[in-house]
Amino acid sequence: MFQSMFAPQSFTSSSNVQSSYYLGVAQKIPWAGKRGLRGQQADWEASAASFDVGETSLRLAEASRLAFLDYYLNERLRELLDSNMKAAGEFRNTANIKYEANQVTQQDVLQADVELAQLEQRKIELDQEREIAIARINTLLHRRPDHPLPPPPPALAQVADLPAASALRTFAVDQRPELQALAARIQAEQTAVELACKEFLPDFEFMGRYDKFWTDKEQRGQVGMNVNMPLNQSRRHAAMQERMFQVRKMQSEFDQATDNIRNDVQMAYARVQGGIQTVKVYDAKILPTANQNLTAARNGYTAGTVDFLRLIEAQRETIELQEKHQMAIAELHRRWAELERAVGGPVSVPSDANSIVVPSESPLVPEGS
User: Fold this and answer.
1) 166 with 356: CB under 8 angstroms?
2) Which residues share a beta bridge with 210?
3) Which of 219, 208, 175, 71 is closest to 132 using CA atoms?
4) From 60-64, 159-163, 246-250, 268-272, the region with the lowest mean pLDDT
5) CA-CA distance, 356 to 345, in Å (whole number)?
6) What single DSSP character describes residue 213?
7) What angle (nearest 5°) sits at the alpha carbon of residue 313, between those of residues 311 and 316?
């Protein structure tokens, strides 16, 4: 601290006294260790803030993947709709030919027209959903909502088998930025407890000045020291107790967050497992059977052994199952994104399939946890 004081009247020409002023400097010196503890506390708070950024990044990455999956699914559903409209048009042509040959009634042609009209209405819905999906992605990219996007890939990467759930839970506890931020804040509070203990000790202030208010030259150069007297012990005891209780509270929050993360991982793990099995059932059983049923209905209608309504129902059921298949694939990848967010990073499967391989920094674990 720089200190100064002047006597203005002493600098006037009419003054009969010497010009009076003093200049000085002062430096506060806390008790040994206080400054270091304050620095450590600030470092832990900064670390916690950086881990908060990591948790936000995880959630933003999950939101981006979910937005992309909506865009991808819409494209696949539009492709299926185009295929369905083409097949419905062919069915109508077949029904019209048979009607002109007096082999079927006009109801078959009208039923085909109704089916085509419903498909056109479905196309309007998908176009609207596509615009919404594009707007969501562009918003995440800080672009105008109607900025054109390239088409999504024709297929998503195949989801690998999951590692053991216990390995994922262990990794999540070590990796999640949310837990690391809490651990850093616990360390900051523990440092604050140590600092509160040192508040019982005095601080010092050393100073020196040149004081021309004194007439004798020998008295103008001065040095001094101030020492605070921490006599109010009850206030300092209360502050220390408050910090200790805050540490216990945050320890409990850390334990609760750990349990919640383990639960989130287990729930996401179960959903991914269910999604994998669902996609396998569609690939191995449901879709092949539906395609065989549609082929049999188409051949039967051409041969006159199946009515048009059953043909339309078979076609509608097949397209519906194909849509559900694409929805199941997209849902599986959504669940995978949720799992990786819950775990705190990408999940890869090693050769033994009992642990996970993801590079990570050394985790922060609060003392006593």
Assistant:
1) no
2) 23, 221
3) 71
4) 159-163
5) 11
6) T
7) 110
Chain centroid, CA 183 distance in Å? 19
Model confidence pTM above 0.85: no
DSSP H/E element including 365? none
- What pLDDT does 161 receive? 75
- Contacts of residue 360, Cβ cutoff 8 Å, sequence gap at least 6: 171, 174, 175, 345
Mean pLDDT is lowest, of 17-21, 101-105, 282-286, 317-321, for 101-105
pLDDT score for 362: 34
CA-based Rg of the chain, rounded to a whole angstrom? 38
| Residue that has been written with the tokens 């929805």 in this structure | 327
CA 199 to chain centroid: 40
Cβ–Cβ under 8 Å, residues 174 and 360 = yes
Q: In this structure, are residues 365 and 181 in contact, taking their beta carbons and an 8 Å threshold?
A: no
Work out the number of other CB atoms within 10 angstroms of the CB of residue 141.
12
> pLDDT tens digit string along 299-320?
887 787 877 778 888 888 888 8
The residues near 105 (Cβ < 8 Å, ≥ 6 apart) are: 99
Question: All domains of the chain, ordered by start, with CATH?
Answer: 2-343 (1.20.1600.10)
pLDDT at 368 over 50: no
Distance in angstroms (rounded) separating the CA atoms of residues 231 and 20: 38
Is 357's pLDDT higher than 70?
A: no
Residue 295 near residue 315 (C-beta atoms within 8 A): no
- Crossing angle of helices 177-198 and 233-281, rounded to 10°: 170
Burial of 310 (0-12, 13-18, 19+ CB in 10 A): middle
In this predicted structure, what is the pLDDT of residue 159? 76
